[in-house]
Amino acid sequence: MKAAFSNFNLRKQLLEKTLYFSNQNLQRKRNLDIAANFFHTTRSHCKKYNVNRSGGTFFETSKRGGYEVEDDLSFWEHAKRGARMLPNETKKLVSEVQYYFSADIPREGCPQVNLLDKYFEFGSPESLENWSVACDQDYDGGFSTAEVSLMPSGTGLFSGNICTRVPKTGEIENSGYANLRFIPPMKSFAREKYYFFAGYSHMVVRVRGDGRTYMINLHPHALVDLEWFNLFSYTLHTRGGPYWQETRIPFSKFFLHHKGRVQDDQFPADTTEVKNISITLLDQNDGPFSLEIDYLGCIRDPSHTEVFAYESYRVPKWTPRN
Amino acid sequence: MLGTSKKMRHIAVLLLRRHIQQNFGTNFCSSRKLVFWKTYLCFSPTSRMVQTCALRYNSRSSYDADEEDDEKKEEMRKEAIQSALSTQTYFNSKHRNKETFEVMLEVFEKANPTKRGLVEFIFAARKHLVEYGVQYDLDIYKKLIKLLPEGKYVAQNVWQAEFSHYPKQQDCIVRLLDDMEKLGLCADKQMIDLLIKRFGRHSDPVRKCSRQIYWVPKFRNANPWPVPFPPITDPFLIAKLAIERICTPDPQSVVSVWQSKSVPEALDETYIVSGQSPTQQELLAKLPKNESIFVEGPLNLWFGKARINYFMLRADTPRRPTQLQDPDDVSNLKNPFLFESSDIVEVPSVHEQEDGTILAVCATGTSSRDSILSWIRLLEIHGNPALSEIPVTFSLKSPKGDVTPVDKDGPVTGDESEKLGDK
């Protein structure tokens, strides 16, 4: 076969190369995390309007801000489930250790220049299990609906309907949101795994939207309750129409907000430990939405030298930060 | 005689107290009620307070109305005043526009020199901003803020500033500013000055304002496909701008506006906004004549707060053989110094995507099947003669309706489909 050096072919080759790599990665991921989804498939229900919701205390009582997920299992059932997990988790641990000693140096820290690495993508019906959808209706906080499905071309479709009607419970002032979240794989014994994006400068998203403005979120690794509800976000504007768009968002542009309120004291997102990513729709427009997602990846562009896009001067003393 | 008038007054006071209690949820102390009523009842003690106020307004405005427009406006004002006073429910006037909204604020100011129930009034006003169509008007927000007294709520020392002096009033204004922010409005210098006079520099509303001035312009100007602000409601203009936005990937694209009347057999008369580039015309001309192309739609497109339906002319893309290469494979290295001849492949245009070749897009006034048919015929006339030979398949869903601006409530009914069904 004679490869052509035309522009298109080069681009295609690059794309295929990344595809090849990401396929390998996917396979590796699958081998490592056979039981990763086990933790997400237990029978559970959500406690609505819990008294645990913060307010009135100086500390946060729960990581989910009162929207707890509780399972109905008794003590013995828990013990049984734990025992059943044990062999699988041990196997996983062994494979992790094996991988640690056999694999090459991790290449996340030094990505090739302008070469796309796909991290979050669709492709097979099984890949839908890696994504979870949430909307206000799930927590009795509104009437929006949302779902994620697979298109025949192998891309994911995040669609639904946004309704800004506020339920008359008196608890909520605004409603109408939908969220698509990646379920990150876990290490053995349900230890959390973090993505290392520090080598990259941009997040790359290839989507086909409907003209609405979405939001891309980076979930940071939060240790103390002060930062549990921190989120780094940036807007994802979509063109709408039948054409695909490839958007590059610099990591320096992501701004910090806590429980949905943009903070005065801004600092850049810690890309060495990114727990997760998600896409949110929050524009107060009633009606259907659809966002076709090909992939979310990262890229290193050495010409981008910006560290943080927002002013980070010292706020005067005794000024309340919030 | 004196006794009856006293009784009347007493009854009126009781009635109005009940109204205010019900509508504003305030229960005022008995010691202050006399002060509250003295201001109205001193003018004409026998008639009800409502009447006096209205009469005062009438007498003032009688000689102003010279032209017809002014007369109309005056009538509207009178009606608004009546609605504000006679039922003690504000924001219930027949005409709903900026002027009548301002009348409500005036009446409140006249009727409440003590500013009682001010927070509740502002909360009520917030609810009716959209109804009166003043939600994008910064002046109205300023006027609402001006209702607050100057200097009263300013914190006098550090402790008051720290522990939120007059928290209800501060919270009320913060919510008002939050409403503005949600719509994309931003405070200005004048508004900050107003707030500093009322709450002092170290207060929540002023801080909220300064945050707004920092963040809102940043996000408002972040959109690479900008949308006019405040939102436009003209369906034709929205359709035209939306189709222009769809066509941005190909800078050569031409957006043309046609009337469906120009097609002889057209049933409905609407505008057709069509977008096509010369590249797309070439692609269309090259297509095989025996394979059909498809019209797809109606598809959704959001343009700011408005949603429109658009249609797309699409052909199936011929499948290219995809070969996955192993970049680590070193068995077949190329020597760049041999100048081996290589295949030349044409770079596909942006219109040739994996799931089809996009040939044209359009939006019509009615989104009906008939208007789409006229669109295809107009395309044939305007530079696509190949369309007369290529079979076109209409894979249309039932028409949903035309452009629906956000101000209209509910979807437009599919009258067009019924008409077509009858014929």
TrEMBL record, chain A:
It is found in: Mitochondrion. Signal peptide: none annotated. Keywords: Chaperone, Mitochondrion. It holds the Pfam family CIA30. InterPro entries: Galactose-bd-like_sf (IPR008979), NADH-UbQ_OxRdtase-assoc_prot30 (IPR013857), NDUFAF1 (IPR039131). Belongs to the CIA30 family. This is Complex I intermediate-associated protein 30, mitochondrial. It comes from Frankliniella fusca.
UniProtKB/TrEMBL annotation, chain B:
It is found in: Cytoplasm; Mitochondrion; Nucleus. GO terms for cellular component: mitochondrion; nucleus. Keywords: Cytoplasm, Immunity, Innate immunity, Mitochondrion, Nucleus, Transit peptide. The keyword Transit peptide applies. InterPro entries: ECIST_C, ECSIT, ECSIT_N. The keyword Mitochondrion applies. Residues 397-423 are annotated as: Disordered. Pfam families: ECSIT_C, ECSIT_N. GO terms for biological process: cell surface receptor protein serine/threonine kinase signaling pathway; innate immune response. Residues 405-423 have a biased composition (Basic and acidic residues). Residues 277-397 form the ECSIT C-terminal domain. Belongs to the ECSIT family. This is Evolutionarily conserved signaling intermediate in Toll pathway, mitochondrial. It comes from Frankliniella fusca.
